[in-house]
């Protein structure tokens, strides 16, 4: 007997949803008219167009066909239910064609739903066919990026500033405080998830296989990553935690066995015994790290077993395909495919994660293969991901989420290609998808004038999204909207996107030489070039770029009023201000001199200086506030 779940989607009627007229719509500021059955919102002045419709309690989504002329400023579709904040999606640039925009995660109690559009005047905007529907599944979407390199950059002299050029901290602050302030700033700009990549034991004594490069000791290791996890947790960020299972960079063609694990297998001559030992080491290591996070109250939402493991894990014992002597290299020595070993490694990691944190979703992450959609269209069985995950499932490999990298520079594919590609994978494997990595140039070159890592964008994007701050912003706007469309009509979805690398900014010495680089030279103990410094979310001087506004313009609903009337916030330096919401204000008492940040969910706010044992009432509108990274409510 076949068990089936049937979902019924209810549509909510809006007045003039197809814009035969403006009846039922309110227009605030600016100018708008009906042209050829579409709503035309003119550029030049800030304009909000909206209407309220009666609606039952539940979760809703908005669909609209839009056409926008620009990636500048603010332009979004939003929905707001009774008792909740706005859910919104930024409208991507599309000058000569309509684009489907989805706003998901709109919550409402019994009452009314407000549906609307905001154009800050930067856009010539056309809107058509707006629909409101009940969601068939809970909307889950995390947005943020990889913060693994943050302490490395700060320790080598990098500094970060907000979009107006104000420093995010004092240079005399300890590294931990500086890192915390950067993370809190990213939270205020709309991030709600970070990625942290754990490398077993980086350092000069564990170089690459050519003995040319190494990763600096003290960064990306256990101590550093656990600290970053604590800071992210304090800022109420979700965490994607990646186990590299290597002392060096790992990717589809490099998966070096950690030096400590090599010493454990060096006297074993039998491949089966070696694989068995490595499986045990991997499982024990994974459980140990997960337990150390759990002891601090940290349970990552997503845990990745390896990074871009197209070629397998722990080379040469866990290859996904044969590597003959004629194709062998230092990174990929001769060896045969061993899916039994791969599945054993994955399952050891999976079981270790679940034994400590059953709610964590386990991710298997592959490098970008989106170009397969252009090669093979809808023939999903020809995709590299289909080959890998079919073999993994055939061997009994356990996982919860498909992790994917997507760089239009490398795959020469558009967001539309990515959406179609992911839809086919969801139909075949019935798994959620997490975009583990994506990035885009904000400058054509590194500061030294040479190309960075992402040197050729997809042909369709070269004019639409040039390598500029606004081009980068435009790409991310299209990407996030596209990812919300993935899985429509199924029980699965894209659960988030993580930018790489957002914080590995350019840092130089007094002679202009790089201090931060993708790796350091064994011979000279100096950094090689920083290949991502022109793709970060901060410019060469560390100033925040316009792209960060995209996260603020893409939000899900949150409750406006929470239960309770008192909350204590624990600060990193030990100060414990008591936060007591008052009607129309916020009472703060401190027991130590402190700079306290108070920001609304929309990012508006300020830093305030409090003296020792000071009590102050701040008169604020009702709503949710983030006080030093913690939520509190003003009634």
Head-to-tail CA distance between termini:
53 Å
Radius of gyration: 25 Å
Which CATH architecture of the largest domain is right? Alpha-Beta Barrel
Q: Portion of residues in helices? A: 10-25%
Annotation, overall tally of beta strands: 31
Shape: globular
- Total count of helical runs of at least 4 residues: 13
What would you give as the CATH superfamily of the largest domain?
Glycosidases
Total number of distinct structural domains: 3
Beta-strand residue percentage: 25-35%
Mean pLDDT: 90
> Major sheet: size, sense and barrel closure?
8 strands, parallel, barrel
CATH topology value of the largest domain? TIM Barrel
Low-pLDDT runs of 5+ residues are: 1-10, 561-576
Strand order of the largest sheet: 12-13-15-16-19-20-21-22
Structural class: alpha+beta
The level 1 CATH classification of the largest domain is Alpha Beta
Secondary structure elements and pairings:
Elements: E1 11-12, E2 26-28, E3 32-35, E4 38-41, E5 47-55, E6 58-68, E7 75-81, E8 87-90, E9 99-108, E10 111-119, E11 125-134, E12 142-146, H1 150-155, H2 175-188, E13 193-198, E14 213-214, H3 222-234, E15 238-243, H4 259-265, H5 271-294, E16 302-305, E17 312-313, E18 318-319, H6 339-356, E19 361-366, H7 371-376, H8 384-394, E20 401-406, H9 408-411, H10 415-429, E21 432-438, H11 461-464, H12 469-485, E22 494-499, E23 520-521, H13 549-553, E24 567-568, E25 578-582, E26 585-589, E27 594-600, E28 605-610, E29 615-618, E30 623-627, E31 630-634
Parallel strand pairs: 12-13, 12-22, 13-15, 15-16, 16-19, 19-20, 20-21, 21-22
Antiparallel strand pairs: 1-11, 2-5, 3-4, 4-11, 5-10, 6-9, 6-11, 7-8, 7-10, 14-23, 17-18, 24-25, 25-26, 26-29, 27-28, 27-30, 30-31
